[in-house]
Amino acid sequence: MVSILKMNFEEKRKRLVESLKDRGILTEQDVINAMLVVPRHKFVPLDAESSAYIDSPLSIGLGQTISAPHMNAMMCEYLKLREGDKVLEIGTGSGYHAALCAEMVAPKKSENPGHVYTIERHEGLVENARRSLKETGYEDRVTVIHGDGTLGYPKEAPYDKILVTAASPSKIPIPLRTQLKEGGILCIPAGSKNFGQNLYIIKKKGNDFKTKRITGVRFVPLIGKYGFES
Ligand code: SAM
After folding, report:
1. In terms of CB atoms within 10 Å, which end of the chain has fewer, N or C?
2. pTM of the entire structure?
C-alpha cells in the first residue's frame, strides 16, 4: 500500500472519492466523475495544498472557507445537476464548487452545454476564483459576478438549479425563489447566523415550494439585503 505522504494529488483525490463512496455520500456517477476530475488543490491557498484532499473545510482568506468535500458531494447529488442546466451559485468562495457544477452541466465537447453563474460578495475572493477557474479550464463555463447574491442574478434568470453555499436566515431570500425555474431545485442551508442550521432542498411546483430538510449543517453566514447583517 502506498503511504499517503508519497501519493500525488490525483492519487489523493481518488482516495478521497473512494472514501466518500464507502460512506454512502457519493452515489451518482456524474458527481463521482466530477470529483475525480476537478483539482481541488488548485482552488486552495498554496500553504493548504497538501490538505486539499482531506475531507475538511479549509480557510481561503477573508474569514471564509472552501466547504468540506462531503458537503460539495452531498449538495451536488441533491441538486440532480444535468447537462444543459443553467445554474446559479451564491457564495463563489474559492470557485471549486462552481467548477464541479460546470463539469456536470457543461462537460467538455457537450452539444448542449449549460452554464454556471456564481456570485461572491468579497472582491478579493472573486479575483482568486476567476484565476483558479482560468488555470483549470473552467473560465468559459463559469461566470463569476461580484455582488450581493441574496438578490440573485435577474439578468440570466430563470435557473434550473440554485445552490447557496452560505447560511441564509430561516426566511429564504425571495429573489432566489422567484428566479428558480418551474420544476427547478434550490439547495440552501438556513437557520441562525452561527449555529443551528439545516440544509434544505426546495422544489418549485407552480406557485408552491416543496421543502425537505436534509441534515444539520454549519456554514458561514449569508450576508446581504435578504440575508444577515454584516
Ligand atoms: N462554494 C464555495 C467554494 O467552493 O469554495 C464555498 C463558499 S463559502 C462556505 C461561502 C461564501 O459565501 C463566502 O465566500 C462568502 O463570502 C460568500 N457570501 C456570503 N454572503 C454572500 C452574499 N450575499 N453574496 C455572495 N456571496 C456571499
Report:
1. N
2. 0.97
